[in-house]
Amino acid sequence: MKKIRVGVLGGYRGNAMIEYCKKAENAEVVAICDKSAYVLEKQKGREGAENITFYDNFNDFIKHDFDAVVLANYATEHAPFAIKALNAGKHVYSEVLPCQTLKEAVELIEAVEKSGLVYAYGENYCYMSAPREMKKLYREGKIGEFEYGEGEYIHNCEPLWPSITYGDENHWRNNMYANFYCTHSIGPIIHITGLRPVSVVGFESKITERKLRQGSKSGLFGIEMITLENGGIIKSIHGDLYKNSVWYSVYGSKGRMESAREDAGDDFVNTLYVNADNYSGEYPEDKKAIKYKPQMNDLAKKFGHAGSDFYPMYNFIEKIKGNPDADCIDVYEALDMFLPGLMAYRSVLKGGVPVEVPNLRLKSERDKYRFDVACTDKKIAGDQVIPVFSLGNPEIPKETYNAVKKEWERRVADKEIPY
Ligand SMILES: NC(=O)c1ccc[n+]([C@@H]2O[C@H](COP(=O)([O-])OP(=O)(O)OC[C@H]3O[C@@H](n4cnc5c(N)ncnc54)[C@H](O)[C@@H]3O)[C@@H](O)[C@H]2O)c1
User: Fold this and answer.
1) Confidence class for position 419, pLDDT limits 50, 70, 90
2) Domains of the chain: which residue ranges?
3) CATH topology of domain 125-307+328-384
4) What secondary structure does DSSP assign to 313-377, as a single string?
5) Can you give the pLDDT at residue 294?
6) How many whole angstroms separate alpha carbon 142 and alpha carbon 85?
7) DSSP secondary-structure letter at 218?
8) Residue 35 beta carbon below 6 angstroms from any ligand 1 atom
């Protein structure tokens, strides 16, 4: 079988996609790029490195002869690299998030349309066992039409923070506003229903001591209340509450589906409860939910995160190969998963009013946003810069970052950093 040749930008999270290519039969990694000497050294020491060319800069890397690029660089910098890669004739798999600003969103869509190449968004939580099965059942009409859903992605990253921010005050994780990383909570509900978000109201939690001692300037968590095109509503919550949770629930006109919560047991994300009538208005007495254990294929079982490190890459490669059944998240859907967070923070900054979510599928909508560069990075936003916390950025002493950096250096020395 002809293998798709892949280049990977970012060898840290990118390692999951590198591992996919090593184990799967439809792709191979031929080039890796990372500006960090530490990450490159790690990758050079891994099995199969002799068949890979290594780069420390994107401009040389993108000239390498490969078919597709995986972008696993900083979450705020995917769009500019995606556009360059598409213009260089490479298919693109982008880690979350798809872009940082509305200007980039417009440019990204137009680059994908112009190229005719595959753009796949790596919103891997859509492919975890429960949400993957929920999509199948929803599309079969199991619970009727979507009315309400909830998505939770709670990840207390404090134990990891030194390993993933290295004490760098300017690292994107220290500078993302509370609603920015909204994709894992919103994404699965969007992918299950296929409905477009039309407006959003945002909420931002307070800043806590836990955040400040890590060097992060944002509220602890964000909430988006999103209205979809059919009038259905999503509640999305994500952030660093103390106890982790990945959980999805969807109500329709004749039933409900929901995944199990973390405290329900070790196999929670692989468990799904479905309680649905045969028709709306049936109301049989004592109807109990059916417990499903969605099946993963044998190859997917070799990968982490309940299959979510397998399926998105598998489908991306299959899409490139022309498989009509490949289940990819295209650029429009990617923005449906991200723009509600971006617009929710605007809602927060305006005191909690509902804000329209742009429909960039429409060419007529795009001109409104072509020069909208508002974000927390002054280099990108100029005088449109917005604070990381709505009431103004907190003062975090240099010593905080120095202490995180020291801990990062200790972990490197003691070989405690993964990959
Ligand atoms: N989907 C998931 O489950 C999941 C999990 C973790 C991270 N992520 C995403 O993966 C991406 C990467 O996150 P991360 O945790 O690996 O860490 P990160 O964002 O700190 O680093 C990414 C890597 O890219 C490299 N890099 C950045 N810019 C570069 C450039 N211009 N040229 C060459 N190399 C460059 C860095 O040196 C680093 O090794 C982010 O977008 C994040 O949102 C997703």
Assistant:
1) low
2) 4-124, 125-307+328-384
3) Dihydrodipicolinate Reductase; domain 2 (3.30.360)
4) HHHHHHHHTT-TT-----HHHHHHHHHHHHHHHHHHHTTS--EEPP-TTSHHHHGGGTT---SS-
5) 84
6) 40
7) S
8) yes
94 C-beta closer than 6 A to ligand 1:
no
**Residue 179: pLDDT over 90:** yes
- Report d(CA 254, CA 141) in Å as an integer: 9
Quote the ligand 1 centre to 405 CA distance (angstroms): 18
Chain position carrying tokens 């996609």: 17
- Six token digits for residue 11: 């060898």
Cα distance between residue 100 and residue 80, in whole Å = 10
Helix or strand (DSSP H, E) at 4: strand 4-9
Pocket lining: 74 vs ligand 1, CB cutoff 6 Å:
yes
Instruction: Flag whether pLDDT at 266 surpasses 70.
Output: no
> What fold does the segment set 4-124 form as a domain?
Rossmann fold (3.40.50)
Shortest CA distance to 57 belongs to which of 72, 35, 38, 36?
35
- What whole-number distance in Å separates Cα of residue 14 and Cα of residue 42? 12
**For ligand 1, atom 3, which residue shows the shortest CA distance?**
124
Reported pTM: 0.96
> Under DSSP, is residue 193 helix (H, G, I), strand (E, B) or coil?
helix
Q: What is the 3-state secondary structure (H, E, C) of 104-156?
A: HHHHHHHHHHHHCCCEEECCHHHHCHHHHHHHHHHHCCCCCCEEEEEEEEECC
